Protein 1
Amino acid sequence: MKFDYYQYEISSHFASAIINGDYSGLIDSDIKELDLFMNNLPVENGHFDLVDYDGEGFFSRCEICGLYSECLKIRLYFPLNEATA
């Protein structure tokens, strides 16, 4: 099976929710922003088979909340349709 990915610069405080499904460190407004972001991803239902990230944080604008913070480059992988791969 072949995969492709989308890459985003995302505030590090969202990483656990995206990678592990652990929302425990997020406040209600963060959860709403993350859910909106995930629901608007170009993949059906925001479903990804694999997620990884660069271990080095850097200061940038988060693509989820729009605020400047320590961010990670997170890659969300999805399977390619075998007919088009």
Protein 2
Amino acid sequence: MSSDPRGPGEYPRETSGWAVGGATFAACMIMIIGVFQVISALQALIDDNFFVVTRNYTFNLDTTAWGWIHLVIGIILIATSWGLFMRAQWAGVAAIFFVSLSAIANFFFIPYYPFWSILVIALDVWVIWALTRRGVLRGT
């Protein structure tokens, strides 16, 4: 008796080209988003007066604090993208979590730099979509 779970005529499934392409696309986009976050962070840390601070904003943080938040998120995203490139098991779930965190942070950053924040949120949503497609993270 065979302990093979496949039925007669079934063959092992190969990793789909679409799945490999989706994971590579997501890893590239996460790297780009991470670099965008680092650029935004450096701008906030180097020149506090670059960003226009709105009055009476509920989540009013100093632009230096926003700079550190974006810097940490950017570094984490760059590291996570390397994990996706290396096909690490942890990288798929971590990528979805950290990209979601990036979208939330940029949502709160909209009053400071609206166009840039909305652009990064759109890229974050695009990456989440790419990662959650069937077979992208598991290769099935």
